[in-house]
Amino acid sequence: MDKLKLFKAAGGMKWEDRYRKWKEGKAGRAWFTPEIKVRDSDIEQSLKEFDLKGKCVLDIGTGWGWQAIALAEKGYQVTAFDTSHTAIELCKTNAAQRNVEVDFITADLNFCDFDIQFDWVMDRGCFTTLNEGFHKSYCEKVAKWLKPYGCFLVKVNSRMGIPYIQTCFEPWFEVATAKPSLFQGGNPGSFTSLYFVMKKKNPI
Prior knowledge:
The protein is α/β, with parallel strands linked by helices. The chain has one domain: Vaccinia Virus protein VP39 (Rossmann fold, 3-Layer(aba) Sandwich), CATH 3.40.50. It is 36% helix and 27% strand. The chain has eight helices and seven strands, in the order αααβαβαββααβαββ. The chain has helices spanning 3-9, 12-23, 41-49, 66-73, 85-98, 126-129, 135-145, 162-169; strands at residues 56-60, 77-82, 103-106, 118-124, 146-157, 173-183, 191-200. The chain has a seven-stranded mixed beta sheet, with helices on both faces. The protein starts with a helix and ends with a strand. The relative contact order is 0.17.
C-alpha cells in the first residue's frame, strides 16, 4: 500500500477535514473542542504517582495542543505531533498566546520517526481513533520511541475494554495502572474512557 492510500486508510484526511470544520466554528466531538484548556487530571496524578522526572516528552495526536502546552508550562520539553496541518497551526497559535515553546510537528503516525527517545510518552485519544489493523504497528512505534523502562500514559474510549488494550500492548509493556476515567471537559460534558499507565518492559 502506497503512502497516500495508507494515509487515507488510517483516517488522516478525515481528521484534517474535521479540524478545518472545527476552525470554522462548526460542531465537532466535544473532547476535541478548543474550549478544553484544562489539564487532564489523570496525567497530573501520574506525574506525581510515578515520579515522572524526565523532561523529554512526546504527545501523540496532540489535537488542539492543550495538554502539551500545560506540560511545557510546568517546564517539560515537549514534542507533539498530529496528522492534521490545521490542528498544528492552531496548536502553535495557542502556545504563542500562552508564551510557551512546544515543538509542534505535522506528521502522520505511520510515517514519522524520531532521532531521540523520550523519557515518557502520552496519548489522550489517538489510539482510540485508529482502525484495529494499525494497533500493532502503533504499539511497536511507541515502544521504539520510549527510553528503556519509560512510561506510556494513554487514554482510550471505554468501549475498547481493558483486556483488549492489555493484549495489544503486552509484548512491549507492563500495565501499571488500568482504571475507568473520563475525557474531561467539553460540551455537553465528559465521555467515559479507560486510562492506562504502562511501563516499557525491556530495551528494544
